[in-house]
Write a structure and sequence with these properties.
alpha+beta, Nuclear Transport Factor 2, Chain: A, 3 helices
Amino acid sequence: MSRSPRRVSPAVFPLLVLLLIAPACQKLQEDEIRIRVRSVLSGIQAEGGTTGDKLNNAMLSWDDGQRKRESGGLDVAYNQFVHWSRKKDIDRRISDWEITGIEILSDPGPTTAIVSVKIEGKPLQMRVTKGERITWVD
């Protein structure tokens, strides 16, 4: 006796698609956040406390377009970046760092994550929101 294949109700199909796609979307979000944080910390590691293309790229990744929405542009963004990095004593070249975790928050609005890092052995956390400057979680 053979069984006929089970049919999936059309009402369930969107849920199945969501269950299959959601993990892939979260992985893409994590990768995007990881690349952004890596750009910031790599630039500080290479040229922190100085000026140069790598530090400029770090500042632009940290800023994520915020400078375009306020007066003062790059000058204000640079000053805010220096202030941000001084809060955790990384306004200089750092010797090592690593990303130890990324937690995507389910807040409505732009993608936001808490990123755990170790900078020179010291554990820190950053709030990373798409389209906004990275902030420290204190």
